[in-house]
Amino acid sequence: MAAKYECKVCNYIYNPEDGDPVGDINPGTPFEDLPDYWVCPICGASKDQFERVG
Predict the structure, then answer these.
(1) How far is CA 28 from CA 8, 9, 43, 47, 53, in A?
(2) How much is the pLDDT for 54?
(3) pLDDT along the chain (54 residues), means of 10
(4) Which residues contact 53 (CB under 8 A, 6 or more apart)?
(5) Where are the alpha helices (H) located in the chain, listed in sequence order?
(6) Coil, strand, or helix at residue 48?
(7) Which residues of 7-16 are buried (b: 16+ CB within 10 A; e: fewer)?
(8) 8 A C-beta contact, residue 41 and residue 20
(9) Prediction pTM value
(10) What is the reported pLDDT for 1?
(11) Are the C-beta atoms of 25 and 15 separated by less than 8 Å?
(12) What angle do CA 28, 31, 37 make, to 5 degrees?
């Protein structure tokens, strides 16, 4: 199971099993494989504003 990551700005949880339909990220995409331009679909925070939570 891939790790989940939480946005430190708005507490959105990126779950690799779900992907990010808003950002056109397919289910099964690990956080580490997200493109550098990807941002939080809720608040627009960049990837460096996320921390691993599980």
Answers:
(1) 22, 24, 22, 17, 17
(2) 77
(3) 94 98 96 97 98 92
(4) 3, 4, 5, 6, 13
(5) none
(6) helix
(7) beeeebebbb
(8) yes
(9) 0.92
(10) 72
(11) no
(12) 115
